[in-house]
Specification:
single chain, 197 residues, alpha+beta, Phosphatase 2c, domain 1, five-stranded antiparallel sheet, 3 helices, 35% strand
Amino acid sequence: MLDKIVNIDIGGYTRPIAGEKRNGDVIYILKDSRYTFFAVIDGIGHGDVANAISEEIKSFLINNHNADIQYVIQKTHEYMLGTEGAVIGIGCLIGDSFSFGSLGNINCKIVNTKNIDMLSTDGLLGVRGRTSKVTSKKLEDNDIIFMYSDGINGNFNSSEFNNYHLFSSEILAKKIVKQSGSLFDDASMITVKVQIS
């Protein structure tokens, strides 16, 4: 039997709270030969202080990414001990297998003919660490993964996605942030469109 061919289109969009130039949310996307690794980071607060925390975490991930999400979150928490804190969600794609873990209120859902909410773990990087629960799912053709910060109203569902396959992941993320993002919080989303043949 031939291996499945999994094609992904991944993109993201992030914007600061109204009135701030610096964004407390940061996104990170890495595609390499082993896996696709991506993260949404939300530093506590807004503006320069939150941005500095989130950018420091992104720099740490650039040098310490790994398919073991639980391990990466634990190491990031240890690295950030003593800071103001942040929340993080990490996704990892290997073939048609997707895993998600978080520390704090970064959410993730998979939309196709139905909605599947992935499990988030309460906590705060550098402040209140807990063992992140990682959930995994075998992906299906035309699945769309959405990972997003708490600045996004997550009530969007599969009935809204009839024509969303027409857009690139980056444009789709931007549309949802503009449609469902709060003006009173930083808002970020990473979108992954999956095609399996």
